[in-house]
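Exercise 7. Given the components listed, write out the predicted structure of the assembled complex. Treat all entries as one system.
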Amino acid sequence: MTHRIMSCSEALAEALLEEMERDDSVFIIGEDIRAHDGIFGQFRGLPKRFPARVIDTPISETCIVGAGLGAALTGMRPLVDMHFADFFTTAMDEIVNQTAKIRYMFGGQAKVPMVIWAPDGGGLRAGAHHSQSLESWFVHTPGLKVVVPSEPADVKGLMKSAIRDDDPVIFFQHKKLFAQTGHVPQEEYLIPIGKGEIKREGAHITLITYSRMTYLCLEAADLLAQEDIEAEVIDLRTLKPLDFDIISRSVKKTYNALVVHEACLTGGFGAEIAARIGEELFDYLDAPVARIGAKDVPVPFSPVMEDFVLPQVADIVESVRKILNRQ
Amino acid sequence: MKTSKKEKLSLLEKMLMVRAFEEKAGELFQQNLIPGFIHLSIGEEASSVGTCSVLRPDDYVASTHRGHGHLIAKGADPQLMFAELFGKATGYCKGKGGSMHIADFSLGILGANGVVGGGFPIIVGAGLSIKLRNTDQIGVVFFGDGAANRGTFHEAANMAAIWKLPVIFVCENNLYASTTPVAYSLAGGSVAARASAYGIPGHITDGNDILEVRKIVARAVKRAREGKGPSIVENRTYRYRGHFEGDPQKYRSKQEVESFRKKHDPIEKFKRILKKEGTLSDRRYEDMREKVALKIEEAVRSAQEAPLPDPEEALDDLFVNP
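Answer.
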């Protein structure tokens, strides 16, 4: 396949361009998306190309999500732009009580082909209301699929799958990765929801991660390689449904596992993965499964404090050394 | 708007059907045959039946926790509704929904809702979808006076107004949001009056007069279908039963309930009109009542005989593509 170098932001716009050309029922709805092609430029070219299908709204997150739901129930395929993942709080009833449950409550009568797109994550010195990683809330709500890609090719392939999916998908994209570039195939392709990928192979320990932490884990793996520690890095890409097979195959090979996410540690998705590895792969483990997440405080503003709170490459390296008794 | 003799009789029969369904549901609940809890709309039949009588089968309705009347008025099958109330496999939602979560998408019923004010954003989405698909359908959201104080009301009314969506906000103001009186909780004293803030029409009706409800809602329907945008209709009515069956109702007197029942009952009121104009004879009315009672008995019987779901079916229907 031929590849091009593209940013995550460009990959998203290209996925949506292709899907909106393919299917008239796809539309985008959200705040401030027409004037600047989305506040991060994530919809570049789309308002001009599809003037009727890129819809600016008042600041009414509850009704934006609910309107997406109502449209999805009546034959459309909306992509709802949450503006910032932090603003999920203003539309939680529409997501948790309505969107996630409608198909089930009504005995399978309805389908909800809706994507809720949410830029999340910290590291941008944006303070406590614009820096959170809230994926655990949605993983804990039956009826939602949760996607958390890292590299541009995955953003594109997963967004195309999410748009075509007949179920509601919460699609997180890390703000700090918008400019991140990578190889994206020239030809059309899809990446299935629910499949992780090994981004680096290794024999000594499995690093299980997703979103921006994938890049930090890859950096850590480079550093560890200098100490003859070969870390395998799994980017889950989707949290729900979870690709536990890829975790299982890897842990059976490395006998060690560390889960790394940017969301705060307590009650984070790492706890779920650690528990499942403990339940299903205990006999393969050389050491307890370890977890790295943000410290349990809101994300602080001052750069020195934010860097202290969010996981860093050094934290990953140190944790791996400790697990493998190399200190 | 003109209502023919035949239409009038059919409106009366529909109201009798809603009341018979609700009374039977209350009776079965008292006998512990319906699990959970139910909210009955007895006394509010003119609003549900009058409103739905001017809708087309392909129009959308978003309903509430007090939704049995809306569903029957939009054409739902009482037998499938009772089966759902009993938690049977043959119910509208295969027993996964219950009283507060009944839908029939084939009739445009986008669902009752367990969250007060949950229907507003959904109907805005249906309206937006109608606009994007370029059809001449419309959407109606039923809501109570309590829901008018939720933020969803404001966001939806504003959004529907700026986009001139083909939707109608039909408030059933029954004077109490659960236990809380409108006089205490509703600033301005009227839901319809809020319409002026959005630059859309707002009407108050005698919500116990089915012909008036029909006339006013028909006007809003016409406006919506012509692409002129949303309206708010506030049907002033009253519920005879508690907020839920078993509600001790310490917030109002028995005399108040009796007085409404005596003076403002929507069925009695309509019956008197029809008799006076010679549309309805005593004989005809009795026949109608019997026919309705029989249909309800039959619906209950076959719902009772229907099988319970296999408990493992609880794991189905979450996703289209699991």
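Discussion: DSSP finds twelve helices and seven strands in chain B. Chain B has one domain: 5-303.
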